[in-house]
Amino acid sequence: TDFKAAIKTLADNKPKLGEEDKCQLYALYNQATRGDNVEPDPAPLMIWNREHKRWLAWEELKGMDTKEAKR
Question: Strands, E, within the chain: which ranges?
């Protein structure tokens, strides 16, 4: 599928992406494959923590349809 091809392309180019792009792609992937974020924030008091940034990016997509996230 196009979604699987896109994931492979991104995996092959991951080192070239900036941290913000990686967080956004993490969020879109999780929204597309898992739906809304129901996980607790892994580091709520550490706003510069990478895991918190990834969690927050996914949280911001709450309500987005999984099909929309795959586009």
Answer: none
Q: How far are the Cα atoms of 19, 21, 32 from residue 15, in angstroms, in the given order?
A: 10, 11, 22
Looking at residue 23, what is its pLDDT? 92
Q: Is 30 a residue whose pLDDT tops 90?
A: yes
Contacts of 70 (CB under 8 A, 6+ apart): 2, 3, 32
Cα–Cα distances in angstroms (integers) from residue 71 to residues 22, 32, 40, 42, 56, in the given order: 16, 9, 26, 27, 20
> Which pair of tokens denotes residue 11?
């995996």
Give me the numbers of helices (H) and strands (E) for the chain, helices first please. Answer: 4, 0
CA nearest neighbour of 28 among 19, 37, 15: 37
